[in-house]
Amino acid sequence: MSAEPAALEARELTIRHGRRRTPALRDCSFRLPAGRVCALVGPNGAGKSTLLTLAAGLRRPTAGTLRVLGAGPAESRPRIGYVAQTRPLYPRLTVADTLRLGAELNRGRWDQDAAERAAYAAGLDPRSRVRALSGGQRTRVALALALGKRAELLLLDEPMADLDPVARHQLMGALLAAVAEHGTTVVMSSHVLAELEGTCDHLLLLDGGRIRLAGATDDLRAAHARLTGTASDFAPHTVVESGPTGRGHTALVRSRGPVDGAGWLVERPSLEELVLAHLRNPDAPALRTEHATPTPSQEAAA
Ligand SMILES: Nc1ncnc2c1ncn2[C@@H]1O[C@H](COP(=O)(O)OP(=O)(O)OP(=O)(O)O)[C@@H](O)[C@H]1O
């Protein structure tokens, strides 16, 4: 548990789309402290976009609660920047008009410089109509609106999917600057695990609508180890994934006590290794670190 303010706090969050029998999210409980850059990862259909739409106040949960910046999602909407996977924009407006509309809708908090930096960094013409933009250019404009809004919480659905490598680099720079200057919290869904490694300091791994891993990336990595040795018994540690290697056996384990001194070669897994091992092994127990655990609710404490 933590006294740090939470950007998101979910308790038993469940949502069923329409009449679907299987919920898109099931009993998800987690806490995302404010000021983090959180990678939201998981396979196709895991529930990532659904979670972002709930946080953006565009859908209501079937059961459970989600607090956003300490309030209900709808109430917090003015403080949130949400970039949907479809990048909805007005096709007839020019890029400059789109930013003007952003300024109009966010009077008193609009940051024109930040919006223009994001939109025009690659030489995009302000007079271009939105309908004539490429997928990556639309993404730039959608991100420019979110950054110009000086949102306290940015909810970005696969923001890097259609950006070229230079634009990805620029986007990460702009996001990290917002975090450093304004304490912005960023939640970013992505399938490009290697790209998230150096940028994200928090991870939410969803699979089948359930939370598999939640916590600071350093804490999650520190809770695991890759052990390689001649024996195949890795007790007392919990094996997430194991297999033979040229040198004997190797396993990615959730450590229970010290891992040194037992004759194993010990390595700290990368974020990508950790995520892949959990996705390949759906029976591995979920892990939510202390800082990612919701504080006891007032009703529960009463
Ligand atoms: N509007 C909808 N109506 C019915 N079912 C939906 C709707 N939106 C999502 N779903 C279902 O909810 C589940 C979660 O979908 P969601 O889009 O949240 O996954 P995702 O993790 O974002 O996937 P991807 O990586 O492919 O974008 C899937 O089974 C999907 O089919």
TrEMBL record:
Keyword ATP-binding: yes
Molecular functions (GO terms): ATP binding
ABC transporter domain boundaries: 8-233
UniProt KW Nucleotide-binding keyword: yes
Coiled-coil stretches: none
Keywords associated with the record: ATP-binding, Nucleotide-binding, Transport
UniProt-listed SMART domains: AAA
Protein name according to UniProt: ABC transporter ATP-binding protein
